[in-house]
Structures are given as C-alpha cells and as structure tokens.
Amino acid sequence: MKNRAKIAVAILNWNGEKLLETFLPEVMRNTVYDGAEIYIIDNNSSDNSIEYIKNTFPEVKLVLLDRNYGFAGGYNKGLKQIDADYYVLLNSDVAPGENWLAPLVEKMDNTPEVAACVPKIKSYTQPDMFEYAGAAGGFIDKYGFPYCRGRLFDVLEKDEGQYDESVSVFWGSGAALMIRSEIYNNCRGLDEDFFAHMEEIDLCWRVKNKGFQIMSISQSEVFHLGGGTLNQQNSHKTYLNFRNNLYMLVKNLPRRRFVRRLLLRMILDGVAAVHFLLKGEFGFFAAVAKAHISFYGNFKRMLAKRKSLLPHVVTENHDEMFNGSLVWHFFVKKQRTFRELN
Questions:
Q1: If you count DSSP H runs as helices and E runs as strands, how many of each does the chain have, helices first?
Q2: 1-92 belongs to which CATH class?
Q3: Rounded CA gap, 49 and 64, in Å?
Q4: Backbone φ, ψ for residue 121 (5° rounding)
Q5: Which helix (H) or strand (E) holds 41?
Q6: Which of 135, 192, 232, 320 is the most buried (most CB within 10 A)?
Q7: Beta strand 5-13 with 84-90: parallel, antiparallel or unpaired?
C-alpha cells in the first residue's frame, strides 16, 4: 500500500523546460524536509520538459495529464492523483529560500484553524523587493480589488523588515500556497471556470467563509520571477482578471451587500474602460468589454455556484477585507503603501 506523504510540493508545468532548468535545482536544493515529496504536474507539454526531469531529477514524481487544463484545471486534476496531508502549489518560476518549508509546516501543524499559509514572495531579479504576485500576504477591498502587504496595484515596496510579523491575511498567492489537502478537496479546489488568474483568491475567500484562517508566514521566503504588471502585449490577462473578479464577487460577496457592491464594482470597471479608451489603449478597453460580455453570459452559472456555497458559509465578515475603496485611496488620496492604507 502506498505511503501517504506529509507534504506534496506540486509544480504545474506546461512547456516550461527553460524555467525548470533554472528553478527546479533551487527547489530540490532547498526542499530538504522529512516527509516532503516533489511532484511535477504536466499539462501535456510538447517540449522536452519531461525528458529533462527524468534525466536530471529522477526522484521527482510525475503526474502526466492528457491536455492543457490551465492553472486551475491542471492543479485540480493533478492533485487528485497525489496523496498528502498538505499540498504546496508552487509556480515553476519560483526559487524557494533556504529552509522555507519548516515555518509553514510548523504553523499548520500547531494551528488547526489555519487552512493555508504562504511565505513572503519576493522578486527573483531584485531580491530586496516584494514581488507582484503575493508580496507579504494578500488583502482585498470591499469592491473586490486585491492588494498585498508590500504591493498596491503595480507599486512595489522594498522589503525593509516592515512586514516581518506573521499575520492573518485574506488570500495567499498561488505562486507558493500551502493548504491542507482535506480542505482543498472539500472546497472542490480551484474553480476551473476561471482557467487562470484570481482563482486562488476565490479559493481563499471560500475557505475563509467556512471559518478558517489564511496566514502569511514571514519567516519563510521564496523568490518569484513572475510578470505582474499588465501591458499591451497581454490584454488577455486583463480580460481574465476583470472577468474572474466579477465571477469571484458573485460567488462570495456577503448577502446583505451583494447587489450594491456588485453594481458599484461594475461601474468602476466602466470607469477603467473609459480610462483605457482615452489613453488610446484599445486592447485594454476591448479586454474589459469582452470580460463583461463573458460575465453576463455566465451570470446564471455563477449565481448557481453562489446558491450552492451559501449554506456552508460560517462567517461573512472578515477583518482582512478593507472596508473602503482601494481605487479611491490609491488614485485620489495618493496612498502608495499598505501601511498608509491601513
């Protein structure tokens, strides 16, 4: 009978041979922990990723999928084939710091109300800077705009120890997220309708609505190559972010605030679209319009998901949700850091 692992560090791969060559040796070197196993979940790559892993790190376990299921679907289908107490979702462009796992495992082992935790996420190319994807833990405003300790919109802070305290957060980045496998599976994992972007925030919101905590553990660090800020070359990313944010709000907003906050968020999206248009950023403008068209087409589907989730909600009020507008504080009040905002 197969032994159950304590920790499964699962890296999702799709044609990422070059990233694996750079980052997998760092993962192997710094993930020396009793009970930890490294898995590559492969979304049917057509490059030489699998050959590289087999030839260089034969101890790495492979989960081979029959096609590219995206980030959400890839993890859901891959993790179903992995038996472990804790899953760690780790991007293929992340280099873990030394002894990164121990503080995460210690928090999970000793605090059963904590469902998931994340390390500090810093920049691989500028190691003294926080990285866009998660920085020192994620928060959200009442209209669904996510931000981090160390990052508001595209303004990143230098890590000067200002966020060295481990704290409860609203969401943890899917770039490096440890979560109890039982809770991940009971929540049915990541929402595959998202395909990619914001699916981990949606998952964390669902987990918190069930009464669990998400923690940022500052004694653990990883370094993420990432991408982060949006530009004309990735308007599809803009489309996914706008659409998926609306999906997430429909599924998870508190009952009493649902209609008003959703409508106000849609108005803010309209303002963003006009802003893109006036700046001549027609790709972004089209991406927002396309996102809303897709959202309207799937609105009933998201309402059905909301209806299925509501009976399981234990708490709707979360201290980690900012009861204000990030857009207002950032663009009007010119607040640029997490500490100013809070």
A1: 12, 14
A2: alpha beta
A3: 11
A4: -115, 115
A5: strand 36-42
A6: 135
A7: parallel
Measured distance CA(189)–CA(206) in Å, rounded: 10
Distance CA 146, CA 167 (A): 17
Phi, psi of 140 (to 5 degrees): -155, 145
Identify whether the C-beta of residue 336 lies closer than 8 Å to the C-beta of residue 330: yes
Q: Round to whole Å and give the CA distance between 33 and 5.
A: 11
pLDDT tens digit sequence for 218-272: 999 999 998 643 343 589 999 999 999 999 999 999 999 999 999 999 999 999 9
The H or E element spanning position 87 is strand 84-90
pLDDT digits (tens, 9 = 90+) for 61-91: 999 999 999 999 999 999 999 999 999 999 9
Beta bridge partners of 116: 179, 214
Sequence-distant (≥ 6) Cβ neighbours of residue 181 within 8 angstroms: 8, 79, 84, 85, 86, 87
Q: Where are the domains of the chain?
A: 1-92, 232-321
Please give the model's pTM, rounded to 2 decimal places.
0.96
Residues forming a β-bridge with 92: none
Q: In 236-270, which positions are buried (b, 16+ CB within 10 angstroms) versus exposed (e)?
A: ebbbbbbbbbbbbbbbbbeeeeeeebbeebeebbe
Question: Which residues, in sequence order, are CB contacts of 16 under 8 Å at separation 6+?
Answer: 45, 47, 49, 92, 93
Instruction: Indicate the SS3 state at residue 323.
Output: coil
